[in-house]
């Protein structure tokens, strides 16, 4: 017999299946997800945890008329598989293939694009308000994890929705995990609900009722009706959510489709804001992902039998060097405090957290709070280091300006995943940070050319008497030998790697390696380049840049950042302010466009962040008429 999944071309196709058939379909979906992620990499554990929930949601609601908004969106693979994208599922996260996140431009069933956390309830409320204003008839459902529920935006939206009393359903997918174990008082509260005896009572009652009916479909509605009177059993009195104006339903077992159908049907018919609390197991159905939900949250290609990752490198990642250096520096400096917003292992802080538990804070998915809390710590004389992915730092822009930089406080921002991150795509590339940070007074911005320079820069940043951002890329370093001891570097001083008369290649961060290689390739063609590791985006080494720009008359800037307002723009501003407008300058970086998903190397090639493009650009500049008076 063929697979049920073979017959599912649209969500309506699941509605003719029995509960037993839905369970079978759930297993097939799991198998498909495991096989594909083992090959392509992706967010395995979150997706395995929501397979039954996905089927229940699509059974009760009718997308695209009804809207399902997946918070973060890293758990939408099952949804993709039953909304007409199974054929392309093997292209998941591949360049030109399916995105790993919901994308309305990919399917009408993807109601809203997500990737960053805690946005779903706000977006859902907005859609519900628009629906009511336009007098339409549909359900709007936000599906949010317990981790995402730690984000401030989620609370802001609950607060507003509870006040408005708009028809809106929030499904809280509670698996006790963020990427690591979930943190915070709300998490503790949810865990107390889970262990409340009323939970098992309500679960037993629904199951007993369902066992008495022969099939599902319209009977789900009947059971939901009959349960209306018994609704009190499903409500735990005094709930925070009730107090905020939501009807609370649950907690219910997120792997038992029958009771979920009943509860979701109820939620649909209740009116007003309703929160359905669903308990799931992260990684469900694949042993290694259950046991190591953290590792299997997001993973590269792996061997299904052993759960071992396939791509291993002997070269340390920038993240590892950052984590090791910070832990080492903290051993000598008791003032160092490390802060993460739910990205402890991702930012390389696991060792630090173990060694210095009193000096480590995971604030949950709360970047804004992390930054202002760091400001408070810095104001009190300590040295906070906020380790954060570039893309998530965007959340805390006002806090950086208003709480840190305005008071010139010594907060170090360890900005990981700067530049192109690869398969996660446009929601996650860290390509805006030079631009958005550079415009803020008081901040120092540095980017290491390799992992050895990273350790020296971290040492330097911690010694600074003002805010400092240290930006480095995702992935392995260059493979250089690390100096035995981290040492200070002079703030605002660039490093001249080679000197040549024909052109200046001025690069920053990981692009220094590209410039270096381009310099070698140009030399093979008889063109002598000055190659400079700028090290600092702010302050620029003005004297060095002007001197070499004047001497060669031609400059190419290279950065893995958007060109708008970035490093190249800073160099142009410098040359213009200094009156050197006749120097030829070309800037290589990311154009005014969102960068798609693909491997880092595919995307770097696409945007010309490779030595060959630097060489071509240099050749085109050199073949041009020399600018009068410059050389
Ligand atoms: C603003 C923001 N910060 C951090 C992240 C990284 N991140 C992605 S998923 C996740 C954990 C989400 O936990 P939860 O919502 O409970 O979903 P689960 O993976 O447990 O299903 C984190 C921290 C993010 N996507 N957005
Ligand atoms: C969904 C999400 O935001 C994270 O899981 C992110 O995908 C992690 O990225 P890294 O793989 O770079 O740690
Ligand atoms: Mg969770």
UniProtKB/TrEMBL annotation:
Homodimer. GO terms for molecular function: 1-deoxy-D-xylulose-5-phosphate synthase activity; magnesium ion binding; thiamine pyrophosphate binding. Its cofactor is Mg(2+); thiamine diphosphate. Signal peptide: none annotated. InterPro entries: Dxylulose-5-P_synthase, THDP-binding, Transketo_C/PFOR_II, Transketolase-like_Pyr-bd, Transketolase_BS, Transketolase_C, Transketolase_CS. Residues 316-480 form the Transketolase-like pyrimidine-binding domain. Thiamine diphosphate binds at residues 74, 115-117, 147-148, 175, 286, 367. Transmembrane segments: none annotated. It comes from the Bacteria. Catalyzes the acyloin condensation reaction between C atoms 2 and 3 of pyruvate and glyceraldehyde 3-phosphate to yield 1-deoxy-D-xylulose-5-phosphate (DXP). GO terms for cellular component: cytosol. NCBIfam families: dxs (TIGR00204), PRK05444.2-2 (NF003933). GO terms for biological process: isopentenyl diphosphate biosynthetic process, methylerythritol 4-phosphate pathway; terpenoid biosynthetic process; thiamine biosynthetic process. Its EC number is 2.2.1.7. Pfam families: DXP_synthase_N, Transket_pyr, Transketolase_C. Binds 1 Mg(2+) ion per subunit. Binds 1 thiamine pyrophosphate per subunit. The keyword Repressor does not apply. Pathway: Metabolic intermediate biosynthesis; 1-deoxy-D-xylulose 5-phosphate biosynthesis; 1-deoxy-D-xylulose 5-phosphate from D-glyceraldehyde 3-phosphate and pyruvate: step 1/1. This is 1-deoxy-D-xylulose-5-phosphate synthase.
